[in-house]
Amino acid sequence: MSRVTGPVCRLCRREGFKLFLKGRRCESEKCAVDRRNVPPGMNVNNRPKRLSDYGVHLREKQKAKRIYGVRERQFKRLFHMAERMKGNTGVNLLSILERRLDNVVDATGMSLSRSHARQLITHGHVAVNGRKVDIPSYMVRAGDVIAPVAKERARKLVADCLELNADKPVPNWLALDKEAASVRVNNLPAREDVRFQNIQEQFIVEICSK
User: Fold this and answer.
1) 114 with 160, same domain?
2) Torsion of CA 29, 4, 7, 197, to 10 degrees
3) Count of domains in the chain?
């Protein structure tokens, strides 16, 4: 995803709930959604409160793109991949997004936020099955082991993040070994394993199928 140079809290306010783009800060009293839970922009009160059907569907797609940090082109490619898979297309799409390496690193507390997870990966601090992977969109598979590369600096960065995120819940499809600072993929994520349960994937399918 192209780098967001503006205030990311505006994205949360636009969607009306926390996207946790700033990690732990989103749980503090500094969260913009808690302090000012209105859409960004001028003359907010003069805007229509009711969205059209297209607007509701579009907001769901934008929500998913912003949560997982993917661009429109990437999102369309992943959607077509989900269409070719067996089963429900919407559930397949969410499973694919959950399996992104940057999402796994963020979900398990190995980073401070999703953007920090992307930075760790692109800078070569993360390995999958012992091999360095510097592609945030890399899709993990069942049985994969994600850990910092065999360098002291990388291990310290991940260990510090795990300590700060000690109380962060780990998704059921992942197994975190804090002592070894590694994560094992037990199985592929199901619909109930998706961290953001308020995503309505059917709306995404409907707007992307047009």
Assistant:
1) yes
2) -40
3) 2
Domain span at residue 57 reads: 9-90+197-208
Beta bridge partners of 132: 127
Instruction: Dig out the tokens for 170 from the structure.
Output: 């780990």
Residue whose token pair is 């969410």:
94
Cβ 171 vs Cβ 189: under 8 Å = yes
Give the list of residues 6+ apart from residue 123 with CB closer than 8 angstroms, or none.
134
Question: What is the number of other CB atoms lying within 10 angstroms of the CB of residue 133?
Answer: 17
From residue 11, give the alpha-carbon distance in Å to each of 65, 139, 140, 148: 11, 25, 27, 30
3 located within any domain: no
CATH number of the domain encompassing residue 26: 1.10.1050.10
pLDDT tens-digit readout, 44-97 = 555 556 778 888 888 889 888 888 888 899 999 999 999 999 999 999 999 999
First to last CA, the chain: 23
Exposure string for 147-185, b = 16+ CB within 10 A, e = fewer: bbbeeeebbebbeebbeebeebeebebbebeeeebbbbb
